[in-house]
Amino acid sequence: MHFADGVVPGDYLGYVRKKSLWILGGTVLLFLLLIVSISVGAVNIPPHEVFLSLANGVVDRISLLLNPGTTIDITSTDRIIWNIRLPQALAAIVAGVGLSVAGVAMQSILRNPLGSPFTLGISNAGAFGAAVSVILLGAGTMQSSVADAVTINNPYLTTMVAFFFCLLATAVILLISRIRGTSPEVMVLAGVALSSLFTAGTMFLQYFASDTQLAAVVFWTFGDVGRANWQELGIMALVTGAATLYFIANRWNYNAIDAGDETAKGLGVSVERVRDVGMVVAALVSAVIVSFLGVIGFVGLVCPHMVRRLIGDDQRYLIPGSCVAGGILLLASDTVARIIVAPYVLPVAVLTAFLGAPTFIYLLLRGYRR
Amino acid sequence: MILDVDGVAFTYRSSPVIQDITFDLRPHQILTILGPNGVGKTTLLKCMNAILRPKAGSVLIEGVDLLTADRMEIARKVGYVPQRCEAGRMTVFDAVLLGRRPHIGWDVSEKDIRIVEAAVRMLNLEDLALRYIDELSGGELQKVSIARALVQEPRVLLLDEPTSSLDLKNQLDILGIVRNVTTEHDVAAVMTMHDLNMALRYADRFILLKDGVIHAAGGPGVVTAEVIEAVYGVPVTVERYNGFRVVVPLESGSA
């Protein structure tokens, strides 16, 4: 069959360009937000100084790489920016991108609008893992009633155990779907069941925990993007980046699955394999982020839906759009969490819901954008 | 021969659904699979693009065995229009563009866009090109689904009850499109149908299934009153009206 006489329709190109502009605009907004986020805090640093410090820092690090031995003068402002605020802001962006992209992929491959790392029990499995490490393995305790005094003595043990349980939850979901045949309903329902099971397990452990252990577990459960150091940030960024590339490479397959399993198979997509591998990748990203930062709900569920309402369901734009939206929501939440009741810092997970839920409900009420 | 089906059988949980199905098809031909509900029409159709794997037999398209070909290769040879397709928040143009999936490397080329534009025009969907498919009527959505299968540039088009949810005008439109495509583009089409009169009007080859096997097969001449009564269990007469053969049931169903 040949369609030799087709032309490229201008209005379609215009329509596509508009979607790209949304994503570009979001990226610019994210960058501006990054500057603002770094500039505000206990010590206010004017935005232009933040920008200069970031630019100089990058140049200095490159020159240090080229000629080792060069001396760099570092001001106290630089220290605040590079040691505290920048890693925290970048962790917020990376975690937002990772959770959001995992959510968008899960919603597509499970053909379910409620798909997210949280709904599928991965976050709760991580929380259970943290409870096990603190209560049974003695990895944490609390010194006083101020939140900052809570210490996880052995953060690596907590991270590893949380990560282990995240993967365990994923493995069980995949195993069940292997036995019953890969069907989205089975995966979703198995995830919901596991989620309840891990929540119950956490409550059971908490019931027998001492006050200090209990506080440490609760503290861990409040996700916090300030926990990550540069090295952990690197691991999260690497995993998130690789997963995002994988999802973008599969955008046509997800579009096809959105049109129905049979249509997708007719279009040459190995639906079962795409579904299984996609689940593993999405779960891995979620597991890495949850185990380093704690439970941060809402981002993975809601950011993709916000983007759907702005630029539609086409995965070519939905996936990058969700990444940007996830970064914006989590970075904005973290910034507000640090300044709203300063000098106290609210848990970022509270703010993602405070900021995200009204926005989301507004978008739900307004319906799709034309 | 463009399509060669030889001894195909399919078994669902150890009970046979269809058995010993053998037929072939040339370009420009439209084959209709007829038979009562649950006789295995859709199963047979799905065996022809390996959505279901036959337990026995072979399906060759232009000499290529579908059962050893990979999914992408099959999708470049066979276009499949399922009974239902999901309607998400996607424009008509993008939904049709999805049909280029088997040909797309990393991203769509200008050629892909041109092909989609031509198919959209061919199915008179230009005015709807930027509408979202979840806002379309059943007939319009069916046209999108067919356009999507066409831009796969297949050699064989499989359609599962393409007219089942359509009004009279849309039924005639859709089947007219299928006939144009097969005559003008060197393609063969296989469809399942319930409407015997529409089948007689548009198809030139027929397979009537009964109890999972071929009861009768051939040109329009095989669709006789006796065969229809044997397959559907309803006495009918086949008459000629204005040059069309029409099937008229002779009794009302038992309520």
TrEMBL record, chain A:
<dbReference type="InterPro" id="IPR037294">
    <property type="entry name" value="ABC_BtuC-like"/>
</dbReference>
<keyword id="KW-0472">Membrane</keyword>
<feature type="transmembrane region" description="Helical">
    <location>
        <begin position="188"/>
        <end position="209"/>
    </location>
</feature>
<feature type="transmembrane region" description="Helical">
    <location>
        <begin position="21"/>
        <end position="45"/>
    </location>
</feature>
<dbReference type="GO" id="GO:0033214">
    <property type="term" value="P:siderophore-iron import into cell"/>
</dbReference>
<feature type="transmembrane region" description="Helical">
    <location>
        <begin position="277"/>
        <end position="303"/>
    </location>
</feature>
<keyword id="KW-0813">Transport</keyword>
<comment type="similarity">
    <text>Belongs to the binding-protein-dependent transport system permease family. FecCD subfamily.</text>
</comment>
<dbReference type="Pfam" id="PF01032">
    <property type="entry name" value="FecCD"/>
</dbReference>
<comment type="function">
    <text>Required for corrinoid utilization. Probably part of the ABC transporter complex BtuCDF involved in cobalamin (vitamin B12) import. Probably involved in the translocation of the substrate across the membrane.</text>
</comment>
<dbReference type="InterPro" id="IPR000522">
    <property type="entry name" value="ABC_transptr_permease_BtuC"/>
</dbReference>
<feature type="transmembrane region" description="Helical">
    <location>
        <begin position="86"/>
        <end position="106"/>
    </location>
</feature>
<feature type="transmembrane region" description="Helical">
    <location>
        <begin position="156"/>
        <end position="176"/>
    </location>
</feature>
<comment type="subunit">
    <text>The complex is composed of two ATP-binding proteins (BtuD), two transmembrane proteins (BtuC) and a solute-binding protein (BtuF).</text>
</comment>
<keyword id="KW-1133">Transmembrane helix</keyword>
<feature type="transmembrane region" description="Helical">
    <location>
        <begin position="118"/>
        <end position="136"/>
    </location>
</feature>
<dbReference type="GO" id="GO:0022857">
    <property type="term" value="F:transmembrane transporter activity"/>
</dbReference>
<protein>
    <recommendedName>
        <fullName>Cobalamin import system permease protein BtuC</fullName>
    </recommendedName>
</protein>
<feature type="transmembrane region" description="Helical">
    <location>
        <begin position="344"/>
        <end position="365"/>
    </location>
</feature>
<dbReference type="GO" id="GO:0005886">
    <property type="term" value="C:plasma membrane"/>
</dbReference>
<keyword id="KW-1003">Cell membrane</keyword>
<keyword id="KW-0812">Transmembrane</keyword>
From TrEMBL, chain B:
<comment type="similarity">
    <text>Belongs to the ABC transporter superfamily.</text>
</comment>
<dbReference type="GO" id="GO:0015420">
    <property type="term" value="F:ABC-type vitamin B12 transporter activity"/>
</dbReference>
<keyword id="KW-0813">Transport</keyword>
<dbReference type="InterPro" id="IPR003593">
    <property type="entry name" value="AAA+_ATPase"/>
</dbReference>
<protein>
    <recommendedName>
        <fullName>Cobalamin import ATP-binding protein BtuD</fullName>
        <ecNumber>7.6.2.8</ecNumber>
    </recommendedName>
</protein>
<dbReference type="Pfam" id="PF00005">
    <property type="entry name" value="ABC_tran"/>
</dbReference>
<dbReference type="InterPro" id="IPR003439">
    <property type="entry name" value="ABC_transporter-like_ATP-bd"/>
</dbReference>
<keyword id="KW-0067">ATP-binding</keyword>
<dbReference type="InterPro" id="IPR050153">
    <property type="entry name" value="Metal_Ion_Import_ABC"/>
</dbReference>
<keyword id="KW-0547">Nucleotide-binding</keyword>
<comment type="function">
    <text>Required for corrinoid utilization. Probably part of the ABC transporter complex BtuCDF involved in cobalamin (vitamin B12) import. Probably responsible for energy coupling to the transport system.</text>
</comment>
<dbReference type="GO" id="GO:0005524">
    <property type="term" value="F:ATP binding"/>
</dbReference>
<dbReference type="GO" id="GO:0016887">
    <property type="term" value="F:ATP hydrolysis activity"/>
</dbReference>
<feature type="domain" description="ABC transporter">
    <location>
        <begin position="3"/>
        <end position="236"/>
    </location>
</feature>
<dbReference type="InterPro" id="IPR017871">
    <property type="entry name" value="ABC_transporter-like_CS"/>
</dbReference>
<dbReference type="InterPro" id="IPR027417">
    <property type="entry name" value="P-loop_NTPase"/>
</dbReference>
